[in-house]
Inverse folding.
């Protein structure tokens, strides 16, 4: 049993496994904003409005507050343990191997599904753009196998993942520069939406404010409705800052840059989301855009701003790959650390002459491309939320354990009111987990049961930690 909870000692990596320190705090903030601001605000405001009505504004506040508590915990752990691997590494160094495996297995679920889901969403927009110009792809190249069993492979989803992976393999600094430019475009797009929709704000559109209640009530098919039910889905719109913690070994000044990147991106995105959500709900009654796949463009068309709607839709498609970049970056770094630890072939941990983990990035891209190309994602996409909640809980627990076990350890960033903030993150994440659909909860438990089986039959014997 003691072997299950053996803890990892964080040491300097050999040259062939060492990542290049090329990122400063503006790059990290942009990485976080790029990963956070994406399909969440562009599509989930419609889903949230369908489940909560105008009370979706409070759903954003609740989900943002829980994520803010988790972000503060991440900032402390990232500066205290400035090594790649995010929650997986923190859990391995603090809570023990088997817990770290569960967290790492959950992160694989989160990152893979986010990248695949966004890639499929981008492919849909891109194919629509091509079809409007007479260049649309054949039907069987625009989707994976459907529930009915129709043959298909999502070619454009594979293409966009390949492009982003190639960019990451080219160099972290180069990727960060392009990502920053696209993030600026994304912010300009949302600013444009607010500028044209806010003048149409009508308080009458906020009534009734909470038509489905403030709690979480199961509806048809197990879907959770109400303000908290919407918050459990809106939560998807906020995470992404955890990808910054995977850049610990590539930050020029990790003591400062990681905390600024994590907390700064969360603050910026929370402000952006609340302004955009208020403008959206106030400009058009929620029943007119609820559950729409493109709510912002639909709202603009609903108030007679067709030209601006087209611009917002086009700019969103151009900037959407920043989400893929952020999460593919994070997943490749987690796989890199798991390879260093022996859970994956150690040859994958070798970095290129540019100081990037080219091998593991290529393998990650192939795996996610297969998922995006052939897997029906409509049922399993919300599983990403469950994996993230698990990781957030683990990081908050790590903060409390180390505050008790090593109270005098060096902490470049200290979570304020840690004994209030960390428990708030834990309890908030647990409550959001209970607000997810039952099929999601069961699927998450099955996923981790499979993960533990792999750990006991294969991974445990390969671990380098003694």
């Amino acid at each position: 049993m003691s072997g299950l909870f053996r803890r990892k000692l964080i040491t300097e990596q050999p040259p062939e496994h060492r990542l290049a320190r090329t990122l400063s705090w503006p790059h990290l903030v942009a990485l976080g904003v790029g990963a956070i601001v994406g399909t969440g605000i562009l599509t989930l405001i419609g889903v949230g409005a369908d489940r909560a009505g105008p009370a979706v504004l409070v759903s954003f506040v609740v989900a943002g507050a829980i994520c803010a508590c988790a972000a503060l915990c991440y900032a402390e752990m990232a500066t205290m343990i400035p090594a790649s691997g995010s929650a997986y590494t923190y859990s391995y160094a603090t809570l023990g191997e088997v817990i770290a495996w569960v967290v790492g297995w959950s992160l694989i679920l989160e990152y893979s599904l986010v990248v695949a889901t966004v890639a499929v969403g981008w492919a849909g927009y891109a194919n629509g753009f091509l079809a409007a110009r007479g260049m649309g792809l054949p039907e069987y190249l625009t989707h994976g196998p459907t529930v009915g069993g129709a043959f298909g492979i999502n070619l454009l989803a594979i293409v966009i993942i390949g492009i982003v992976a190639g960019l990451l393999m080219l160099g972290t600094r180069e990727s960060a520069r392009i990502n920053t430019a696209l993030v600026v475009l994304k912010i300009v797009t949302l600013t444009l939406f607010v500028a044209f929709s806010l003048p149409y704000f009508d308080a009458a559109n906020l009534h009734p404010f909470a038509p489905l209640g403030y709690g979480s009530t199961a509806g048809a098919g197990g879907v959770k409705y109400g303000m908290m039910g919407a918050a459990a889905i809106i939560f998807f719109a906020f995470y992404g800052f955890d990808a910054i913690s995977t850049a610990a070994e590539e930050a020029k000044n990790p003591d400062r840059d990681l905390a600024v990147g994590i907390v700064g991106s969360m603050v910026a995105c929370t402000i952006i989301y609340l302004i955009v959500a208020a403008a959206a709900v106030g400009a058009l009654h929620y029943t007119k855009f609820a559950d729409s796949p493109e709510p912002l463009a639909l709202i603009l068309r609903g108030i007679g701003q067709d030209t601006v709607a087209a611009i917002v839709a086009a700019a969103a498609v151009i900037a959407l790959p920043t989400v893929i970049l952020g999460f593919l970056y994070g997943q490749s770094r987690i796989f890199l650390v798991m390879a260093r630890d022996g859970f994956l072939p150690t040859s994958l941990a070798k970095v290129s002459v540019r100081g990037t983990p080219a091998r593991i990035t290529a393998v990650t891209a192939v795996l996610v491309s297969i998922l995006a190309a052939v897997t029906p994602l409509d049922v399993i996409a919300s599983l990403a939320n469950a994996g993230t909640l698990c990781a957030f809980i683990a990081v908050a627990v790590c903060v409390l354990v180390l505050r008790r076990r090593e109270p005098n350890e060096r902490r470049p960033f200290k979570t304020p009111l840690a004994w209030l903030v960390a428990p708030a993150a834990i309890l908030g994440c647990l409550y959001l987990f209970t607000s997810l659909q039952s099929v999601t909860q069961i699927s998450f438990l099955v996923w981790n049961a499979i993960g533990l089986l792999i750990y006991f039959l294969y991974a445990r014997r390969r671990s380098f930690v003694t």
Summary: The chain has 17 helices and two strands. The CA atoms of residues 131 and 377 lie 23 Å apart. The first helix runs from residue 25 to 36. The chain has a mean pLDDT of 81.
